[in-house]
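Narrative summary of target 7.
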Amino acid sequence: MYSSYEDFVKSEKYLKLNEIGELVVDYPEKLRIIDFHSHLSNLLPGKQKDPEKKGAPIKYPTVPPVEALDLKEPYWTDMDYLKRKYTGFASVIRFSMEGIKIFNDMVNGGTFDNCISSQDNNMIQKSVILPISTVKSDQSMNSLKAAKQYPDRLIPFCSVHPLDPDKNNKIHEYKKSGAKGFKLKITDIEMKNKYDTVIDLLKSCHDAKLPVLFHTGTVLETEGGKISATMNKLLKSTRTELYGELLAKLPHDLTFVFGHSGMQEYKLVAEYMKKHPSAYTEISTQSEGSIRYLINEVGSERILFGSDWPALPQAITLSRVLLATENDPKARENILCKNAERILGNG
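Modeled conformation, tokenized:
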């Protein structure tokens, strides 16, 4: 489709390349923006980097090669390219290697200097920073510390693994220490389809009046294809219906956020949101068309702008919001800041 990013941005109304070749938003007016989905180099499990050190240039390996870019699709990737990429047993190894590459890029580039630079380039005033904790590695204190260092720029969430024996006490302690919400990324492979501990944990979040954001969705519809059974299981391990089913077992007024809007499963997210009025959706990875679909189906009052920086550039999702709300300034304001302000004010 495109031969270079220079060629790509020529066709994009709200994107440009800055002086060092980074994709940034191209919009003449000042906007109020809160990014509801971002990370830092020391909020991830495993290898970490001091976020106060100078960050490496971010390469964004999550974004497909320019020739496979298709911003009309959620995940911004040509579907034929994705299907070829995930076909055969070798795709499992490739999937794992790409995950390591993405993780290393986030660690090396997710520093304070890069974060603030990206915010400034894209008119973003504040970013919600999301730690990802495992049973052995709780990153919540790093999130709280970072927000104290940059209170005008960063908003801390906490994260506790469902199998952490002290999970319920930690939730309330983190809330007292300044956490504004809760983030969790788990898979049914990891949990072995046993979610009692997750339900217990989310009830503690409800008691603490913390909104919760889950990584949800799959990048590719896998039914009836040539994808191996193992690859299929990996791709579907955070499928949207897992969390839709959980919602039915939780307090009706729990503020639950579908991270990434379920990626390719955004229509299913909309259906769950219709059933659960306290559910929201965060739209990193979504297209102009899918954002418009969500606005039409559930209204703009429960949609949150997020980017998944530094895994993805903040400018791409932001440009999709600008396109999807060109004739609706109220929806634009709701998605970019007002909905986030309302949730965080209650947290």
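DSSP finds 14 helices and ten strands in the chain.
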